[in-house]
Amino acid sequence: MSALNIKRWFWIHRWTSLICTLFLLLLCLTGLPLIFHEEIEQLLSTDAPYQVLPENTPMANLDQMLNAAQRRYPKETLSFAFIDDDEPQVVIYMMPDLKGKPDTRHAMQFDARTGKLLKDEPPASRQPQTFLGLMFSLHTDLFAGLPGELFLCLMGLLFVFSIISGIVLYGTFMKKLDFGTVRKGRSARLKWLDLHNLIGIATAVWLLVVGVTGVINELSKPLFGLWQMTDVKKMLMQYQNRPLPEPGHLSSVQAAYNTTKKALPGMTITSVIYPGNVFGTPYHFLLYTKGSSALTSRLFTPVLIDAWTGKLDAIVNMPGYLKSLEISRPLHFGDYGGLPLKIIWAVFDLLAVVVLISGIYLWIVRRKFYADYFLNLSKEETNE
Amino acid sequence: MNNLQFKKVWAMPLLLAALTLFGLLAALLGAGYWCLFAWITILVPLLLIIQKTWLKR
What we know:
The structure holds two protein chains of two kinds.
Chain A: H1 3-35, H2 37-44, H3 62-72, E1 77-83, E2 89-95, E3 106-111, E4 117-120, H4 131-140, H5 145-173, H6 188-202, H7 204-218, H8 220-237, H9 253-263, E5 268-273, E6 284-290, E7 300-306, E8 312-315, H10 320-333, H11 338-364, H12 366-383
Antiparallel strand pairs in A: 1-2, 1-5, 2-3, 3-4, 5-6, 6-7, 7-8
Chain B: H1 3-29, H2 33-55
Helix pairs in contact in B: 1-2
């Protein structure tokens, strides 16, 4: 590579890195506790443990739990139900108005086997900010909603470019050095340059994977919006003459559950979205189902059940871009290979912090060093 | 950069990249033993960093 080309890559690496570094540091630090959010939640939970029942106790009737929730809040509307496949719980969400603000939504937790109400929580707007909630907001949208998500998405893209340019520069820096050389004792700058190169190249693939999947995750709202405006809209056209189902006159959710189970025997149903929910359709119960392997348990297949008749209307095939989004989640969170993988994620995260900070340091002490470096490069070129 | 020099510079980074990628995908696509393979292969770059920074004088 010519000295001019190296200079260009250097320029790309310096500016893409400088612009995103502070935000990346924030993402690394807030991401660290989020890796262990399940463990932390469990630790901080004050809930009583679940009643001990035989392992194969069947699930209680969904309609009975939904009716109990509706009786508690007769003026409100059922929004959706989450059927946990990890813990024996069904969480039912209600809103004063389905088209209202998302933070008016509140949850009731039921024991999935007895159908007994365990907890009735106030809406998010009336709950104190939790530590993990704070970390999550700082990590995903900086408290700024969609604009914040898109901003962090842009920072992630710059980060990806800075990794790629860093890999290119690694090749030129290491021409005369053995892999992993750390020149200690000469100058702090050389030592940190070597550490930046070593740790950067050894973690490059992880950084790229987590960077790219982070960018994709930040696009989840636009991607789902795109799907709703295209495929979903087209699919719902055929139902547009149907009367809208009225709350209180809907078909049975338990029957919808059974119908879906029969149509897709190998799949697990994880949630039921009520008609009128902005994430559902006006005419159907939308049931999200997932597979059982490590991979297919991340891929969801929506099923539409007519909310008047209880008839199965459609098993929906998600488009490729939403499947990529679904695969991006585990690859970003590191939550798909047990606790050891989470610990590995945390170590990589801390190493990323070292690469970021050493990068800033190298930029601060840069001037004289790189002037000499480029002088030597062009001398070499004329000698060759 | 000639062939020999290319190998000297990139052999190790490419090996680490392959191991990391294998580990990341093995845990996603497989279960049981595959998870164990995944942990071991992703650990290699981390152990190498420790060896080069702390253990080597």
